[in-house]
Write a structure and sequence with these properties.
Radius of gyration: 33 Å
Distance between the termini: 37 Å
Number of helices: 23
Helix content: 40-55%
Strand content: 15-25%
């Protein structure tokens, strides 16, 4: 973390000037109460009494926070809140109203300081994630000794020892030992997960009850935790559409109200013969009201609070744009394998054609599937191993996979095809009886050997409850999209309770299905594994990847990433996004309504300069900031 990251907004030069301005303002109030305040004398009537001098000093010290920016804004003719406040302070002093000038300088600085605090609070909650990773690690040497080194000195391939109660220093895989690891910093899951040899672990997570030896798979700069922190920081800079609208609106609103303030100062005295001093004060008040402080901060503070809350709970949202889109979702498309189901596929049955040597076919199929990363491939290879069959020892050449269909390869010089019935061209003389929920995978060699592997999966625990929670959130349509056969897909769909299921879909057909949902429902989210479903995820209004903690590519490409392999995070993410949309709209409505009400009061002479800054700027900023920060503590009520 840089020194700038460590510095509290309450200890900056800006804050010190704010404190000094506040102290001078309070001292002026006390002195005015004791001695009484003289009446306003008129134009260029700078007050030189003790209280007036204290007020003027408060205005000058507080105004120093934005005078420089105000001058630059005037030079470039780009009016902003710094220019408006600078002009109002100087004008108030010149007409003998140092109290109002001091109020502007002190309270506007305080409002700005509150904004700095709100944004900093969100950012520091993410920055604190960096500090979760330990600074030192126990690196194992070839002779078995242990050397303590800095974490940033670890390289891929190093082995580290993690004792019970220690934090894991780097991403890696367990090579010795067994324990339970609390991964809440990455996945948001509160319960520790059992870890054994071969399991993946992440930097910054807590080893609870057993010693582990871990082989490092990523250095400190490229750990999952470091990627999360970096992506959330980048996400804070990506503005939501409504924030972009507010920025454009403020660029028009501020000059327009400034022009109105000038007309208020000039027209009544010139046209109606009214008091020039009185209408000048009313115009100054309107200038203060023109400052869009609360309006401008209404969205970014809310977005930062929502993004950091999501990250702490294992949901990575890649910016305000995606947060807003997630909150507008009306329909949802779900992948089946690994999303609605556990993805822990197992071979339930292996059937071969008459005369086909089953073991020989299975060995050749296992040799080809060993080259694939698909869950079905892992299940087939594991099934062969459980039967005591090793993959065929011959060389595997010309391997090629077609997403959604299958693979082909030459094993020991002979072609093997594994996949859908249409892809392989395999047919059995007698039909195979398939229980509900099983998916058939056909196999064929150039010798005509052919068979069917029946693969089964399990519906995730809690998946039906997740679908029910999504309906309570108002989602109008929930559809499951899968490349599996109709019987397996429909069995899972019935168990989960989705509205519709579309089976035997190729990747391009999933894209067409998502496009159809978008045409009907407008805003559609797609939840998948982030790799096989990449085209459909990109087509959806919001692409959501699940179980992304172990996949750098998924973290980088998804709009929203559920870090844990836990579908129950989805309703929380959508509910948080919807709450953020409501907070943003409330804040903007409040800020604009307050400005309009005060503007009318200012023109009518009912609102003073002090009230304008106290209510319109400090008060409005405080309310929208406090409302936005509530999202940092949001928890789902469903």
């Amino acid at each position: 973390m840089t020194p700038a990251d460590r510095q509290s907004p309450w200890r900056t030069a800006f804050a010190h000037r704010t404190y000094a301005a506040g102290a001078l303002w309070v001292a002026g109030l006390a002195l005015s109460w004791l001695t009484g305040a003289p009446d306003r004398a008129g134009w260029l009537a700078i007050r030189l009494d003790p209280a007036g001098l204290l007020y003027t000093a408060a205005a000058a010290v507080g105004g120093a926070n934005f005078f420089g920016a105000g001058v630059r804004a005037a030079r470039t003719l780009r009016l902003d809140m710094n220019f408006l406040m600078s002009a109002a302070i100087i004008g108030a002093i010149l007409i003998g109203e140092p109290f109002e000038a001091a109020t502007l300088g002190a309270l506007f600085s305080l409002a700005e300081l509150l904004e700095h605090f709100a944004v900093d609070r969100g950012r520091r909650s993410i920055a604190r994630l960096v500090e979760l990773a330990p600074e030192r690690a126990d690196r194992l040497q070839p002779d078995g000794s242990v050397e303590t080194v800095r974490v940033d000195a670890l390289k891929v391939g190093d082995r580290v020892r993690v004792r019970p109660g220690d934090k894991i220093p780097a991403d890696g895989r367990v090579v010795a030992g067994a324990s339970a690891v609390n991964e809440a910093t990455i996945t948001g899951e509160s319960l520790p997960r059992a870890k054994d040899v071969g399991d993946q672990v992440f930097a910054g997570t807590l080893n609870t009850d057993g010693a582990l030896d871990v082989a490092v798979t990523a250095d400190a700069a490229h750990s999952t935790l470091a990627r999360i922190v970096q992506l959330v920081r980048e996400a804070e800079g990506r503005r939501a559409p409504i924030e972009q609208f507010v920025k454009r609106f403020a660029r028009i609103y501020t000059p327009a109200v400034t022009g109105l303030a000038v007309l208020v100062m000039i027209l009544p005295p010139v046209v109606l013969g009214a008091s020039g001093l009185e209408w000048f004060v009313r115009g100054l008040t309107l200038l203060v009201i023109a400052c869009p402080c609360a309006l401008v901060i209404a969205t970014p503070v809310t977005v930062v609070s929502a993004l950091t809350n999501a990250a702490r709970n294992g949901v990575l949202i890649k910016g305000g744009e995606h947060l807003e889109r997630l909150g507008s979702v009306r329909a949802l498309a779900l992948d089946k394998t690994g999303t609605v189901t556990t993805g822990a596929l197992r071979v339930r049955q292996f059937v071969v054609a008459d005369g086909t040597p089953a073991d020989e076919l299975l060995r050749r199929v296992a040799a080809a599937e060993a080259r694939s990363e698909h869950p079905i491939a892992h299940a087939i290879v594991r099934f062969a191993e459980e039967r005591g069959l090793s993959p065929h020892p011959g060389p595997v050449e010309d391997f090629g996979a077609v997403p959604g269909q299958g693979l082909r390869a030459r094993v020991a010089g002979r072609w093997v095809s594994v996949g859908t019935e249409a892809f392989t061209g395999a047919k059995l003389a007698a039909p195979v009886r398939m229980d509900g929920g099983l998916s058939p995978v056909f196999a064929r060699t150039e010798d005509g050997l052919q068979g069917v592997v029946l693969v089964g999966d399990h519906v995730r625990a809690g998946a039906p409850e997740v679908v029910l929670r999504l309906r309570r959130l108002g989602l109008r349509r929930i559809v499951m999209l899968t490349g599996d056969g109709a019987e397996a897909a429909e069995a899972v769909a019935r168990a989960v309770g989705v509205d519709d299921v579309q089976s035997r879909l190729l990747p391009e057909q999933k894209v067409e299905a998502v496009e159809s949902l978008r045409r009907r429902w407008g805003s559609v989210a797609m939840l998948g594994d982030g790799v096989n479903d990449a085209p459909a995820l990109a087509t959806a209004t919001v692409g959501i990847a699940m179980g992304a903690a172990g996949s750098p590519a998924t973290i980088e490409t998804a709009d929203v990433a559920l870090m844990a392999d836990d579908i129950s995070k989805l309703p929380f993410a959508i509910e948080l996004a919807r709450r953020a949309r409501r907070v943003i709209r409330f804040n903007i409505t409040l800020a604009l309504g307050l400005k309009l009400l005060l503007a009318v009061g200012a023109v009518a002479g009912l609102v003073s300069l002090a009230v304008a800054v106290l209510v319109g700027d400090m008060g409005g900023s405080l309310v929208v900031t406090a409302n936005a920060l509530r999202l940092a503590r949001f928890r789902s009520a469903l």
